[in-house]
Records
---
Amino acid sequence: ETWKGKARADEVVNVRQLGGTVGDEEMIVHGSDPLKVGSEVILFLDADEAAPRFYIVGLAQGRYLVDRSGPEVRLARDLRDLRPTKGASLTAAKAETGLRLESLRTRVRALAR
C-alpha cells in the first residue's frame, strides 16, 4: 500500500540500510533498526537518485512495526537507540506503542495533499 508517491501495491522496492555483517566483521549503526524477514512494517522511504532503491527516512524514526494481535491494528517503534548529534536535543527517544494504523494513514494522506 502506498500513502504518498507512485509505487503500486504489487511493486517490489529495494530498501538499503546502513550496517551489516560480512564474514567476521560487523558494522552497527546506532539509530538504525535492521528489518527482519517476515515482519510487517510501515516505512517512510526516500529514493536514491543514483540507483533504483530506497532508504528509510530518519533511520529507526521512519519505521513502524505492525501489530495485528488486537481488535485494531496498532503500530510501534523503538527510538531508544537514537543518539543526537552534537548540539542537538532528543528528548522523545523512547519506545512508542499503541498508535492506530488508521490514524497514521489519515495524517500522512492529509499532509501529502
---
Amino acid sequence: MFYELHNGRWTRCKATKPLHLHHIIPRGWSSHYSNLGEKFKVNGPDNGIILCAHHHWVIHPDMPPCFRSDREGNKDAFQLMFEARERRCLRGDPYWETKYDHWMLWELVHLANQKFGEPYPICGNETVEQARRA
C-alpha cells in the first residue's frame, strides 16, 4: 500500500532502493497517544511512510551501530537496541531524531491531498505546498 502511494520511491530524495517503512507514531511510543482510539493500529496502513535506508537511519541513529554489531556477530544487538528504546520510552524520552517529526506530518497531509484530489488548508489558508516552501 505505501509503496503504491509513493510510486515506489521516497519523495524527498527520489531513492528507489533500499526503501524502509517508517512508523509515524513509533511502536514504542504509541501508548502516549491514548486519544487515537481503539481503531488506530500502530502497525496499520495509516501510520507509515516510505523512507530510503539512509534517511531512515538519520531519524534512528541507533540503527547503523546495531546493524554493524549484528554483522560482527553480536546476535543480541537488536534486542539490546529495543531494550534501550523501551527504557527511553518509559522515561518519556523519544528514541528518534525529533526534528523531522513536523515534516513527516506535512508529508501525510500531502499524501491525503493526492488521494482525495484537493488541497487541504493546514494553518489558516496555508496549503501543504506553501508549508513545504517555508
---
Amino acid sequence: MKFSAGAGAEANRRVTLVMPLAEQRGGAEALLLHFLGAITRASRSSIQAWLEYDVVFLEAGPMVEACRALGVPVRVLPAGQMRQIHVAGRTIRSLASHLRERRSAVVLAWMGKAHCYSGAAAHLAKVSAAWWQHGFPGRHWIDRTSAAIPAARIYCCSKAVADAQSRLCKVPTEVIYPCVDLARWNVDELPTPAEARRELGVKGSPVIGILARLQQWKGIEVFLDAAVAVRRRRPGATFLIVGGEHSLEPGFAARLQSIIHERGLPVQMTGQQSCPERWMQAMDVVVHASVTPEPFGMVLLEALALGKPLVATAAGGPLELLGTRPDLACLVEPGRPDALAAGIELALRGECSFLTRREFASLYSSDEFAVRLNASLARLATKSAAATPVSEPSEATCVSRS
C-alpha cells in the first residue's frame, strides 16, 4: 500500500508498525484499525498519504486478517513471553531483518510493550524508532524497559499521558488525539434508538448504559450504585453494561452479576460485542465512570459522534477533552455514586449540547487522525532513514492538535 509524496519525495519512505496484540481488547487496537482504514481510503478522500505501511504482529489472531482485508502487508513474528530471553532475542533479530528487507525508515511500536522489541530491532537495523502510548505508564517493568530504549518520539493520546510519560523518560512526546470511524459511528446509518432496542431486546425506559472492559477501575460498581439512586426517581429505568472480561480480572464479571442480583437491578450485561455502536444507539444516556484517571476515553468520542447525552468523570483524558466544553457532558467527581446519579438525571433532562457532524469530523475523524500521524511520521522519515537518533533532549515537548 504505497502512496505518492509528491515531487522530490524519497522513493522509499516506509513505516513498519509493530503490534504486540492480535485480538481487539480495547481502544488502542481499535485505533490502529481506524488509522489503517483511513490510509486505505486515502486515494479517494482528502488524505494525502505520503508513506507506505506494513504491520508486524507479535502474535497470531483476528486482527491479522482484519489488516490483510484492508490491503495492508502483514507479517506475524510470534514473540512468546518477554521473560523468555532467547525467544525475545530471536524475535528482535527477525524484526531487524524485516526492517532491512523492507528498507523501512521508521518503525512505530503500537504500545510500549512492542517498543521493547522494535526499539532494539531499530538499533540493529539503524532506523528511527517511535511508539504510540495509549495508556498511562506505570511502575511495571515493561514501562521502565520501554522508556530506557532510545526512541525519536513517543506519540500520546492525551496531554495527561504525555506529562506522565515525560516524568518517566526524556524522549520527546507529541499529542495526537484519538479518533472514531465515522463510517461506523454514523447515526444516519444506524437504526433509531427505538428500533435498536427492539432489535437488541432492550426493555424499559430510560436506557442508561456504560461501555467498558470489565475492570474495577472502570467504575462499573459505582455505576451500579448510581443505578439504585436513579431507580428511586425513575422506576422504569433500565441499564446496560456493554463490554467483555479482562484477562487480569477474570472473576469480576461474576462479582458484578452478584451485585446486580442482590440489588434486584434491571441490568443487562452483554459481554464483548462486535457492534457496540448499535448498543450505544439504544441508550438514552452514555456513562463514563472510571474511578482513576482515564488516559483518554474512546467511549467519549463514540458518544459524541452519535449525539448521545454523556456523563463522564472529571479526571485525566475526559477532563482534558471536555473541560473546555463542559456543555458537551455532565462532568462528575470520580468514585461518587451520588454525583454520578445526579449527572445522569441532568443528562436525561437535556442539559447536554452536541457537536455538529462537521465539527466532530474536523477534530476527531479517523481521516484527521491519519493526516496528523502520517505527517509527523513523514517528518521523522525525512530526518533520518539510516539511524535512530539519540533520545536525550533537554525536555519533553508536547504538541497538541493544530
---
Amino acid sequence: MKTCDAYQEEIMDSFDETFYLSDDLAKHIENCPSCSIFYKQLKALNEQLEMPKPSIEIDQDLIQNAVIQGRKISETRSVIRNNIAFILLAILVFILAGLVVGLGYGMALIGLQIIIVFVSPIIIPVTIVRQLKGARQ
C-alpha cells in the first residue's frame, strides 16, 4: 500500500505533466485529509503562478516543403553516385577492351561480343523464369 508521501509525489507529478489524476489517486485525495489539503494548496499555487503559455504556430506547408526538398537532394545525390559508378565502370571496360585489342586479341573480343549480343536475350529471360519458379516454391 502506498504512503501519503508516495501519493503526494504522484500529485506533484500530475501537475508537472498532464494534470491527470488516476482513479486510485483521486480516491485517496477524497479519503485522506492530509493529501486533500496538499492537493488544494498545490492547485491554488499553480493557479496563482500559471502564466499564459505562448502558442507556437507550426507551419505545416513549410515543414512539408523542407521534407520534399530534402528528398529531392537525397535523390539527386543518389543519381549522381550511380552515374559516377556507371562512368567509372564504362571507363574500366573500355580500358580493358583496349588492352585486349592491343595484345592482339581483337578478333576474340569481337567474337565474344557477338556471342553476348545473341545469347543474352535468351539467357536473361530463362534465368528470370527460373528465379521466379524458385521463389514460388
